[in-house]
Amino acid sequence: MSSNRLLIIDDEPEVAAVIGRVARGSGYDTIVTTDIDDFLNRVRTWQPTVIALDLGMPDLDGLQVLGLLADEGCAARILIVSGRDHDAMSNAVALGLQRGLLMAGILQKPLRLEELRIAFREIFEEAGLISKSDLAEALHAGQFTLEYQPKVDIQTLRPIGVEALARWHHPTRGPIGPDTFIPLLEQSNVILDFTRSMFDMAVAQARAWQTQGLPLQTAVNISGRCWGAFDVAELVVDSCAAHQVDPSLLVLELTETVAMVNEPRTLATMKRLAQMGVGLSLDDFGTGYSSLSQLHKLPFSEIKIDRSFVADCDRNDESRIIIESVTDMAHALGQKVVAEGIESDHVLKHLARLRCDVAQGYYFGRPMPAREISQWAHHWTETWCSAEA
After folding, report:
1. Same domain, residue pair 140 and 175
2. Separation between Cα atoms, residue 68 and residue 112, nearest integer Å
3. What is the 3-state secondary structure (H, E, C) of the chain?
4. Contact 258, 224 (CB under 8 A)
5. Could you say which of 78, 93, 126 is where a domain stops?
């Protein structure tokens, strides 16, 4: 069990689910409840490190809950989440502080994902849980590892690749999620050595799978800071040579922000990588500020549509139109379209009708250790590809 535990009390299941999903991405074990007796029992026995408290529940007064937490001597940091106005939430924070509670801040409904991520990250920082020296020590000690999430051809359902995702398992604090530690790495120079280390680890694993007869294309996220700090193309050349890997087995993922800066050095590096056969993926497309007039000038091989559009594309006309338009544009430019965040068969079939090319999400598999990928690929192929045939 992680040492970071979040207890959510909220009467809106959709809101609680969003908070829980972001919290798990930040390395928290999460429990949701709507019952005050169950909630207080969890406070006593489970001892959460953070509580997300809705002030405006119909049958429960959030201010009274704060009083009960104070009477319990609760040591958790308390995040107020509510649709009430800012003054009401500020008054609740003031009341909590007067009663000796650790108040972590306020979030107003409707929630925004980035605000949630920032809130959980700030809770870590305020608690003094992570410092720059912690990051450097963790890298030196080999605490950072990779897990891999499968990617399949959306028409044939055959496994074609994986995305490498960094994980940090702290020896005493337990798992610390990437939504927490990646932004902190980005703020320090440790990100440079971290990126080199994770990339080399991913390339070595790609070679291992190739040796097993499983030539999976491996996607690796490259921090924006790295594109300006060192020659990414040389990193690829050196690592591929060291592990005897064909560069075409690799995909480098860039965010829109990095890609659209379009500095001459970055553009030259991207073109060199494309000439080497390395795939270039525009990550989280639709959440940044891409200029479509610039997009055709950049040598991307694929566009990755953000999960926020994918999740409801079967029932939201705006999301469907966006995916359809992006797919048409990408195909016209000779690029593939990757849809991430697929969690149901219904959404998968809808994306297939929209002519997306590659699928990724919990429906196919959660991120898993490298040693489990071969077994997953065999089982998936036997079960689903045979059925489709």
Report:
1. yes
2. 29
3. CCCCEEEEECCCHHHHHHHHHHHHHCCCEEEEECCHHHHHHHHHHCCCCEEEEECEECCEEHHHHHHHHHHHCCCCEEEEEECCCHHHHHHHHHHHHHCCCEEEEEEECCCCHHHHHHHHHHHHHHCCCCCHHHHHHHHHCCCEEEEEEEEEECCCCCEEEEEEEEEEEECCCEEECHHHHHHHHHCCCHHHHHHHHHHHHHHHHHHHHHHCCCCCEEEEECCHHHHHHCCHHHHHHHHHHHHCCCHHHEEEEEEHHHHHHCCHHHHHHHHHHHHHCCEEEEEEECCCCCCHHHHCCCCCCEEEECHHHHCCCCCCHHHHHHHHHHHHHHHHCCCEEEEECCCCHHHHHHHHHCCCCEEECCCCCCCECHHHHHHHHHHHHHHHHHHHC
4. yes
5. 126
Q: Tokens in use for 113?
A: 């994902």
Same-domain status, 119 and 145: no
119 with 252, same domain: the answer is no
Given 81, 105, 126, the domain boundary residue is: 126
Closest to 320 (Cα-Cα) out of 331, 309, 305, 336? 309
User: What percentage of the chain has pLDDT greater than the value 70?
Assistant: 92
Q: Which domain holds residue 87?
A: 5-126
Q: Rounded to whole angstroms, how far apart are CA atoms 234 and 227?
A: 11
Residue 85 pLDDT class (50, 70, 90 cuts) = confident
Residue 311: both structure tokens together? 């999740």
Q: How many separate domains does the chain show?
A: 2
Question: pLDDT confidence of 61, banded at 50, 70, 90?
Answer: confident
CATH number of the structural domain spanning residue 81: 3.40.50.2300
Q: Are residues 120 and 149 in the same domain?
A: no
Instruction: Give the amino acid at 97.
Output: L
Q: Are residues 188 and 292 in the same domain?
A: yes
**In this structure, are 95 and 238 located in the same domain?**
no
Residues 346 and 243 in one domain: yes
List pLDDT tens digits, range 149-162.
Answer: 999 999 999 999 99
Paired with 53 in beta bridges are: 9, 80
Q: For residues 238 and 116, state if they share a domain.
A: no
- 271 C-beta neighbours (distance < 10 Å), count: 14
CA–CA distance, 14 with 302 (Å, rounded to integer) = 32
